[in-house]
Amino acid sequence: MDELIQRRFNNMFNSAVEGLWMMTPDGQVSFYNQSFYEQFDLHSQTTLDQWTQLIHPDDRKPFCNNVNTHIQAVGDDTRVITQYRVKKKDGTYIWIEATGINQVDDSGEYMVGNHRDITEQKKLEDSIWQLAYFDKLTGLPNRDKLALDLSKRSSNVTVMTFHVSGIKSYVSQYSEFILTDFIANLLECFNMFNRYESQCYRTSLDTFSVLIGDGLSDDVLAKLAREFIQQFKSITRNNISYFGDVYIGIYVCCNRQASSDEIINSTYQTCEYAVEKSKLNWVIYNDQVKPEVSKYFYIENHIKQAIENDEITIHLQPIVDAATGHLKSFEALARWETEQFGFIRPDEFIPVAETLGLISQLGKKVFAKSADFIVQYNQKWNSNLKVHVNISALQLLKDTFPQKLLEIANDKKGRPENLVLELTESVLIDNNQQVLEGLRVLTELGFPLAMDDFGSGYSSITSIFKMPFSILKVDKDLANQSIIEQEAFEYLQFLSILCENKQMEMTIEGIETHEMAEMFAPIKASSYQGYLIAKPLPVEVAMQIDGCGYPYFKKLNKSNA
Ligand code: C2E
Ligand code: CA
Ligand code: CA
């Protein structure tokens, strides 16, 4: 080649920002532009081995594999691109993207290519990656990273999701510093999973997940959950300003086809189910729990629609006079029949309606149906019976509630004195003035009030008698207890005397057998309710009961005689 052209080429190479190289099959390497390569501890003529020595140890193996495969692919002139870190003279590393291509000419085979500094690009990618997949406060990977890692799983996995309650209010009440301190303590609890191949994630403000690369047994998982809760309690004990709890949902996934979202949903739902339902604070999503969890979420997702579509009906359970067996009243109990789960019990859907703020809407509908029933019943039988309707304490928090009930009663042509409102002792907790005022107004409007489930909680007898209740309903558990325990029986006897003195009616719930009814005869309760007398009945069936003829509950009458 002409000497001038050769010199110009050399100048061009030397001024290029990228590195240019050539390598012979025996590993001799020539670098063509000094300005690029002078940052490394190298000569312009070197060997592949010397270059490899400068490569970051973590990247060395993939680099060698790549080069070997490429060298062997003689005749294949595709570009091969590799990215790796190379040590500079000052000991720091830069990211290099190397492109290589096989060449053959009269002199034989060789490889040429270039080296490009991609450190800035890598930093940007890193910070984007960091932002996309890591939580700022804890530095832990986030929910998206969990989804990504799950999508790459090659074995059965266990995902444990931890909901730490109270963090939200903690954040709003205290400084970030206190939160950081608390989180640091919390993260230490997760160290117990280091005994497995595992990773901890912060999947939302107050939710953490641990991914374990193995499908652990229920026994092991139960032990882990208990151990974690114990450790958590020990940190909260030392943290007087924190009033929260931890709930754990555990899901073992053995199905390789399950998507990341399906797995995450299962552990999240199990965790939420643990928050709402578990006394132990942890739940393993196994064959036993699965239908319960799906039912719980079915309720949560469908209750609003069910209320709006009038799918919630009532059944009516007769309440009879304890002495004569005559029918006195009915208790209206909400019922929800679904295609998927059959009848869903009210104690399953009422708390969900309360949490979702739907209880007022539901309560009004049940009240209207009950009023409708008793008006028609009394018309049909020319009787004057009452219907009892269960009222949630939350309904009383709306100050328009008493007036609204009166409007519904008037609309159905029902008289308030025939519409008994049953309230549990939760209305008395906290001495909420709005609730107490609501009770007063309801009594003033003429609605009789019944204290429901008495004896199941911890309200004192004295507080009950100070309130405007005219009926006291003894809880079925207390009734059951009193047939096996003398003290409980004596307590009931004492309660009945108090009720008589205060001119309150006493109803005993949960009468299931003749023996029970006979045992309670000396107690002189006003009325009985229970499966022995009748189960809650559909409206059409209850409507057929003769309300004013012979004693509805004859057997009881006979035993009293
Ligand atoms: P509750 O008010 O104590 O109602 C009595 C519950 O005991 C009913 O359960 C009834 O079916 C059941 N029961 C009746 N007799 C017996 C018996 O002899 N033995 C036993 N073991 N159980 C008996 P249900 O219908 O499942 O209702 C459960 C709870 O759900 C009710 O307890 C009440 O607190 C709540 N609830 C029902 N309907 C409504 C409603 O419309 N509004 C509100 N807020 N709560 C409701
Ligand atoms: Ca009740
Ligand atoms: Ca009750």
TrEMBL record:
InterPro entries: Biofilm_reg_signaling, EAL_dom, EAL_sf, GGDEF_dom, Nucleotide_cyclase, PAC, PAS, PAS-assoc_C
Source domain of life: Bacteria
Boundaries of every PAC domain copy: 80-130
Domain PAS per the UniProt entry, residue ranges: 5-74
Domain EAL as annotated: residue spans: 296-550
One Pfam family of this chain: PAS_3
Protein name per UniProt: EAL domain-containing protein
Annotated organism of origin: Vibrio ziniensis
Source species taxonomy: Bacteria, Pseudomonadati, Pseudomonadota, Gammaproteobacteria, Vibrionales
